[in-house]
TrEMBL record:
This is Methyltransferase domain-containing protein. GO terms for molecular function: methyltransferase activity. One of its GO terms (biological process) is methylation. Signal peptide: none annotated. Keywords: Methyltransferase, Transferase.
């Protein structure tokens, strides 16, 4: 199993919460389009703090069930406390590459997890075999290649390039969102379709600089260890303020990573 490059420290938990709030509406749109609906039994891969598990719980309703799977016990502890009001949700600790339960699922979903896996197609094949025939496979992931400023702010664009390089240095695949449909097809999923959702943040919107500096902070140890940047260049304590000023002075819109979704029918399920 590859090491998860961002960890589960308190600042990382706060960053995931902010990111989840930012992704709440696009995630809901993509999950609804994917065919997740009332009464389904759904597995959420790499559930983290349980944000997707909670969104799926709303769609499956009280007669459905959601199992959130993650390798990090600290994340799961937080997820459990936050979903106490949702009796249809439970969490289990395990590696998505190996974990399997005897009872079949109606759907498997995963947001921002394929990104971190050394063998995403192998994991998709593994979980399709635990779906009922015709069950849904649904993946949501980032295309960080979309991250940039328009018409152009040098500081933001330098940080965007560093973020891409650091994820790659850590063994992650930061543009996997652009290839979700072919990956599902390669894994044997049938009738694959999907779409992506982009956002555009005004030059005076504080959300963009906060997100940018948050992810740079989480990746800073990787950047420094791989010689991509020095701590002095990153200047973490002032990065959000400098990025905000730089975006304003260049009148640039910040284009955050695109959230892509793809889904289809299990082609390898137990028959
Ligand atoms: C970026 S977070 C995404 C969390 C959540 N899916 C979301 O969208 O908010 C990635 C999560 O995947 C988990 N993870 C990474 N590799 C894993 C593996 N091999 N098995 C299980 N969980 C894994 C990490 O612990 C982390 O909680």
């Amino acid at each position: 199993m590859a090491t998860y490059s961002l960890g589960s420290s308190d600042p990382e938990i706060a960053r995931l919460d902010a990111q989840a709030e930012f992704l709440r509406a696009p995630t809901r749109v993509l999950l609804e389009a994917s065919g997740i609906g009332p009464g389904m039994r759904v597995l959420d891969l790499g559930t983290g703090l349980g944000h997707v598990a909670a969104a799926v719980a709303e769609l499956v309703g009280p007669h459905g069930e959601v199992v959130g799977l993650d390798v990090d016990p600290r994340m799961l502890e937080v997820a459990r406390t936050r979903t106490e009001h949702l009796p249809q949700v439970r969490f289990v600790e395990g590696d998505v590459a190996r974990w399997r339960e005897d009872r079949s699922f109606d759907a498997v979903v995963g947001r921002l997890i394929l990104f971190h896996l050394p063998d995403p197609v192998g994991v998709l094949r593994h979980h399709q075999q635990a779906l009922r025939p015709g069950g849904r496979v649904v993946v949501l992931d980032y295309d960080i290649g979309g991250l940039r400023s328009e018409p152009g702010d040098p500081l933001t664009d330098r940080m965007a390039a560093l973020i891409l390089a650091a994820f790659r240095a850590a063994g992650a695949d930061p543009t996997i969102g652009s290839r979700l449909e072919p990956l599902l097809a390669e894994a044997g999923v049938e009738d694959v379709e999907g779409f992506a959702i982009a956002r555009y943040l005004a030059s005076d919107d504080p959300v963009g600089p906060a997100m940018l500096s948050g992810v740079v902070r989480s990746l800073a140890p990787v950047m420094v260890a791989h010689g991509l940047a020095t701590e002095a260049e990153l200047g973490l304590d002032t990065l959000a303020t400098r990025a905000a000023a730089s975006l304003r002075s260049t009148g640039s819109v910040l284009v955050p990573p695109t959230l892509a979704g793809a889904w289809g029918r299990a082609g390898l399920s137990r028959r």
